[in-house]
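User: For a benchmark we're assembling, each entry needs the component sequences followed by a predicted structure for the full assembly. Here are entry 17's components. Please fill in the structure.
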Amino acid sequence: MKASKMLIPTLKEAPNEAIIASHIYLIRAGMIRKLVAGVYNFLPLGIRVLHKVENIIREEMDQSGAQEILSSAIQPKELWELSGRWQKYGPELMRFKDRHDREFCLGPTHEEIFTDLIKNEVKSYKNLPLNIYQIQTKYRDELRPRFGLMRGREFIMKDAYSFDMDEKGLNEAYQNMYETYQRIFTRLHLKYKIVLADTGAIGGSESHQFMALSEVGESNIIYCDHCHYAADEEKAESWDSDYKNNEAELPLEKVYTPNQKTIEEVSHYLNVSTQDVVKTMVYKANEAYVCVLVRGDREVNLIKVCNALQIAEHELVLASKEEIEKLGSVDGFVGPCHMKIRVLVDQEVAKMKNIIVGANQKDYHFVNVNINRDYNGEIFFLRDCKENDLCPICKQPLKSQRGIEIGQIFKLKTKYSDSMGCTYLNEEGKNIPMVMGCYGIGVTRTLASIVEQYHDEQGIIWPLNVAPYHVVIIPIRYQNEQQELADSIYHQLQEKHVEVILDDRNVQAGVKFKDWDLIGIPMSITVGKRASEGIVEFKFRSDNQKQELTVDEVIDLIVDKVNKESR
Ligand code: ATP
Ligand code: MG
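Assistant: Structure for entry 17:
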């Protein structure tokens, strides 16, 4: 392709809202353009990269035995009511009515659609197992769309759904996808970690996330170098401290703590450590109230609370001072004793003896409070995990690292097949719910993650197999011998199926160099002063080292590289 004919609107500056490399460079390189918040157009260079990323995913999915289909973004409300998610999914679901007042949504994910499809098309064990996937546009009305393609309101996902006869089949399908994802992200040259994950709005039992390692990632990975435990912070657990586990239970006492509301104030006033005091947080979970206990030096993890309560994230909010008063307590002095609401206790707190908590009365706390004697509660793992907390498996200090969630796999089991009646007839003629899994890759987010891991001060450095083109030919002045030589190399490379751009634009050489460094074409050939001798300058974008080569040498080098690395 000749650059003069292409739509490559590069920019010197990115808009102010662009603060991470992928957002800045994809816009500056003329690959994407924003339409409205969280919604982007792909321009010619961008769509070429997108197609290459999609094709790598497609090849590996096909290779795994999965079959591609394409379903609509428009989904009828009725199917979402069957699964119970029309209510539960909350404000992220983009809902609308047609002219007959029938309600629909734009799919944020496709469990309902695929379950309904297979329910209607597959009746017998003879047609199982199946794994069906698509690469398709999803819609989520994210609270804060940001970081360009990272968190869009419209984005492209590869989603797959497996249907098996039993759990053994599901485990095999899951393992197959786990390994397929490893192959996909390795082919995409991403440095990533696989972590245990929360199942969120999708539901199900077991789940893993694939995290591209990056400082700008919105996820926090908690991991252990010693035993290879790794989990997303929403799922991560740590070793419970044995602090105050073995004390004898002392008699309950009420103590005067005037105006001492925070953990720090109370512990300072009573001359104890913050670990002796237990934090009681009150939340409204839909219409009911619940209090949550964690040790004074820990934080409550809201996702873990939602999971314990089996509710969605948007259904949990902090209770107001007024609400706390209506419950018969006082803000700053809340505790679990005599509270007539559900009490959730972090498992570490449940092991502690003689804790200090609010007395539900202004200016008073209880000391020597003991579970099952002074209060009752349901025990879960509810606290945040941080670096240097101890590994739940091997007790070594945990580490943390930022990551971008590029994919997630779930064992759904019969969550959707039960509620939606997706059954099959087994060999004995008995109707049995299919056992399902689902498997997502954020295709556009993965593309952005590649840029996060492959860029420098000048711009993007695409790996060869996803680059919009393999090589660019840059004549310093596109005339006379330079033009002749550039044209000749261009045609020779095209004949050898190398994806090549010829920069025939009538602009200064400096502008050309800057543009191609920004766009990130992996190899470039500069045709300049020594064109008449048949000598050109070659460089890899990845190291920016220029070397002089003859035309034959440069063509051999490029063809060899493309043959080896373009897959
Ligand atoms: P997140 O926690 O980042 O909101 P999620 O866990 O809700 O994501 P899934 O339902 O697991 O997302 O969707 C599968 C994949 O789709 C994710 O692993 C991610 O790569 C991608 N994805 C999810 N939401 C977005 C979004 N708003 N923009 C771009 N990609 C997204
Ligand atoms: Mg996810």
